[in-house]
Amino acid sequence: MTQALALGRRGMGQTWPNPAVGCIVVADGRVVGRGWTQPGGRPHAESQALAMAGDAARGATAYVTLEPCAHHGKTPPCSDALINAGVARVVAPLADSDPRVSGKGFDRLRENGVEVITGILASEAMQDHAGFFLRVEQGRPFLTLKLAMTLDGRIATATGESQWITGASARHAVHALRATHDAVLVGGGTARADNPRLTVRGLSVAKQPVRVVASRHLDLPLLSDLARTATEVPLWLCHGTDARSDLVTAWKQIGATLLPTPLSGGRLDAAAILSALGQQGLTRVFCEGGGQLAASLLAQDLVDELHVFTAGMALGAEGHPGIGALGVDRLAEAPRFELVDVRARGGDIQHIWRRPSSA
């Protein structure tokens, strides 16, 4: 199952709206087939592994990182494929929460004489599929927030200079994180100040993540790198319903997808942004700031994982803070996360935090 989970992770960022599943077929103690969900969500992991196994699948055990599907979509059900291949046993950690599947895949396997074992490495599988479950059950994607800051929590000097606070090793790690997410999200202020491309560079990916910018007024440079590449890499703009119609038209003509989003307190509502992205099928979103967007996500308890890259420099109180105002008066009100890992990234440090397990 550990190997199947590792295979499934190869599809992260590439398979939405489908989950990134891994599958290994074992016969007589030997791996005879392996597969993972392919870019775009098809073929599914099970069909890939069974195709490799061929006749060796008969009487074998299939380790699958999520309950095999039981519904007819663009492809036949994976549960049927496993039955037809003659697999004797299916080991899967979790049931699929999609109401089209949710237990039906396991039931179909059992009804056809296939032994089903569940619960193996369930917590690890739950973490890997968290974005898929969140979209199905809550209508929003898994949200990873990344902050690259100085020792005193600043992301730019008083004049706005921010490139580069962290070094090359940390920036390479950020590109690797982008590659495992369906989309990269930034606020309008970051898009205006940094003219980012928001693409994965230095790594080979089957498809680039969607670039998402949250900008109430759509007051973004029409000659920016994002605008110039809107027809090459998907660009989605979350904006207020009060955005100027001529700007809406201009961005549509450039090739961007426009997502009208409700406001809260005069700003785009963070929960509504994620809901809009979930409706589009996204399961994993990687937010790279800025400070106000980070604060909005934290204030509404929407951050599932936090990656903080800390550089060994200080900019002082006049620098731009990595997180905007949260309105916290008491320590008990402050967002808290559980530390998962600490890694050296060249001369910088990467801290990885997750939503408390009790949540």
From TrEMBL:
Entry binding sites for Zn(2+): 44, 69, 78
The annotation note on the cofactor reads: Binds 1 zinc ion.
GO BP term (any one): riboflavin biosynthetic process
Membrane-spanning segments: none
Which residues are recorded as binding NADP(+)?
148, 164, 190, 194, 290-296
What GO terms are given for molecular function?
Answer: 5-amino-6-(5-phosphoribosylamino)uracil reductase activity; diaminohydroxyphosphoribosylaminopyrimidine deaminase activity; NADP binding; zinc ion binding
Q: Which residues form the CMP/dCMP-type deaminase domain?
A: 1-109
UniProt cofactor(s): Zn(2+)
Q: Which InterPro entries match?
A: APOBEC/CMP_deaminase_Zn-bd, CMP_dCMP_dom, Cytidine_deaminase-like, DHFR-like_dom_sf, Eubact_RibD, RibD_C, RibDG_C, Riboflavin_Biosynth_HTPR
**What family is this protein classified in?**
In the N-terminal section; belongs to the cytidine and deoxycytidylate deaminase family.
* Reported function: Converts 2,5-diamino-6-(ribosylamino)-4(3h)-pyrimidinone 5'-phosphate into 5-amino-6-(ribosylamino)-2,4(1h,3h)-pyrimidinedione 5'-phosphate.
Instruction: Spell out the protein name for this chain.
Output: Riboflavin biosynthesis protein RibD
